[in-house]
Structure formats: C-alpha cells, structure tokens
Amino acid sequence: MQEAxxxxxxxxxxxxxxxxxxxxLHNIENSVRNVDKVYDRLDLRTLDPEECTLMFRxxxxxxxxxxxxxxxxxEIRTRNRHSIGGVDALCILLRxxxxxxxLTDLVHYFGISSTYxxxxxxxxxxxILERNKELLLxxxxxxxxxxxxxxxxxxxVKRPLS
Length: 162
Description:
Blueprint: H1 2-10, H2 19-34, H3 49-56, H4 63-69, E1 75-77, E2 83-85, H5 86-98, H6 103-110, H7 114-131, H8 133-137, H9 147-158
Antiparallel strand pairs: 1-2
C-alpha cells in the first residue's frame, strides 16, 4: 500500500490514475496517517467546572441530573454492541449541539472515532425522543408550559454565558 502511495506521489502523469483510484488512494493515505493518532478518552471527573460549562453549556454537577431528567439510561448500547456510559453519551450529544463543529473535530475531545461519535449522538437523541415523546406530543396541552414561558426560556438561552 505504501508503495502505491509513493508511486502516486512521484507520478507526473495525472492520467495514470482515474478519479476513483486517486480518491481511493487519498482515503487510504488519510486512514494510514490517522492510525497513529490516539487520543485519551474524555473523563468527566478530570474536567474542571469552567471547562465543563464551556464544552457542554451545563455545569458539571448538573450533568447527571440532566441525564436523569431526560431519561437517559446509565448505559447506551449501539447496534454493533459498543457501549458507553449514559452521562458520557449525553455529553457527546451536548457538545455536538453546543457548538457547530465537524465530527472529526470532536475526535480529540472524546478519544473515539467520528463514526462512533455520530452513532452515539443519534442513539442518545433517539432515546431522549422515544422516552419523552408523550410530553413532546402533548406540549401545547400543558398548563405550565405556554408561549410566554417559551419566550422567557428563549431569552435566557440567547443571553451569553458569564
């Protein structure tokens, strides 16, 4: 494989390879290059409170309560039998939603592949929606949640963190 990459790099004739071969070799090169990059997995216990608030927009001590309030289970299992703690999975989703970033940008925060980050985000979102769908479906019939409350919450969210 390395010989093919070296040949491609030295090849002056752009027509020696088709678009498909160039794209394939480029993907192989990137995957070979990224194999050595191993990041530590995020450990919430080692994050200081300010860092946690900046990353997830929630205070560190509130994360377990938020997971419980959203009915996130203590462990999330994917179809391909990977598992991750519920609070950790929620943090991955919160980080993904808190700041627009590509999945590959999140790899160094969490120490897992961008594919796995995507799968976790989708699974956590599905769990939250499935376990809270009745509340969401009947949201307009709740006396405690009305238009003025939504406007109040929107203003609080809009306000920058201090």
